[in-house]
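Hi V.,

You were right to ask for the full record rather than a summary. Here it is.
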Amino acid sequence: MNPFQKAKKSLSKDLATLKPLSFSQKLRFILDYYRGYAFILFCLVLAGFYLWDVWMQTRRETVLEGFFTNDEANLFPADQISKEFSRVLNLSPGQQVVFDDSLYVQKGSSIDYHTASQSKIVAYVSARELDFLVTTRELTDYYSQSLPLCDLEKFLPPNLAGRLKDHLYYLPDSNGVTKACAVSLEGSRFAKGENSHYLMVFSYTQRREAMIRFLEYAFEEEEASP
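Predicted structure:
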């Protein structure tokens, strides 16, 4: 007897068993007997959805990608910022911005979550997929010595560089050259009280226009204030 015939015979027996039972008994029988099958089906559906989502992501053009680390005060809710900035850019269904606020880095820490966060940053920078990184001042000082960063004074258009000149943070890079490695986000739309986070742009980014628009978006409220 092939598997299909076995399954058909088993189903027929179950239907015969269910026939004389009350509704509540039928329900209990189904929940008890088919619980394992339901769990397997749920896992298959979940796996299918995950694979479909991954497939869809690979088909979409990433317009900008950035990480926010050590966000203990929830200043940078990635999903919300992603949705708002997507509207600002008026993205098509085939385009996306990718932001991640789940990372936490601590220098010298051997805690798995900290090392995994650091490894993710290094991996994305090595692959040249990450456009910018927002992190604390301490980590900005640290990364300026090891990651390839833009000189924001040269990267930004003159009008925006002029408006943000008081926010630019100058540090020596890995070659010992002092440049505007970061911009302080104090006074930006993300500032809530004291904000010690800084934004760095990676020197290899090919998404200059979107990066500049994100900085304009970040400081729009400040510029709109009287």
